[in-house]
Design goal:
The protein has five helices and two strands; from the N terminus they run H-H-H-E-E-H-H. With 150 residues, the chain is mostly helical. The longest helix is centred in the N-terminal third of the chain and has 21 residues.
Length: 150
């Protein structure tokens, strides 16, 4: 553990001294991980105890928060890709929301027409639908745009 991480752990321990007088590092880490998970689930999956009313977006690529929550729950925080042999991908990292019907072909961001795919299977589906040359050209363009950005 780096000195900076060690210092952060001690700082968190001090901040929690009233709630955790023992200062048990395992409990401090557990609380820290709970807070991190809550924050990341809000960011990635729009998780909340108090959802706002549903608002329509002008951008068809925008996935409404209520759709993200529904897809996350339905798909169980796991890639939904199923191989020809019937095996469901077990990946739980690098998950991305995928429009079953691409936006460029009129697909809408509804819970019924969205799914979670890992990055590799999302890429595979894009190549299957649009073709490898098209996807490679789009990736090259995106990289060039990022390289030009300040």
């Amino acid at each position: 553990m780096s000195q900076e991480t060690h210092d952060k752990l001690h700082h968190a321990q001090a901040l929690l001294s009233h709630a955790l007088p023992s200062g048990d590092f395992a409990q401090v880490l557990e609380r820290a991980l709970d807070a991190l998970i809550t924050t990341q689930e809000k960011t990635k999956f729009a998780a909340t105890d108090k959802p706002r009313r549903i608002r329509a977006s002008v951008n068809p690529r925008t996935i409404p928060a209520h759709v993200k929550r529904a897809v996350r729950e339905r798909d169980g925080f796991q890639c939904t890709f199923v191989s020809e042999a019937g095996h469901r991908c077990e990946e739980r990292k690098f998950l991305e929301f995928d429009h079953i019907d691409p936006v460029s072909r009129g697909g809408e961001a509804t819970a019924e027409r969205m799914r979670l795919l890992c990055r590799a299977h999302n890429q595979y589906e894009a190549e299957r639908v649009f073709g490898i040359p098209f996807i490679q050209r789009k990736l090259t363009e995106a990289r060039a745009t990022r390289a030009e950005a300040p």
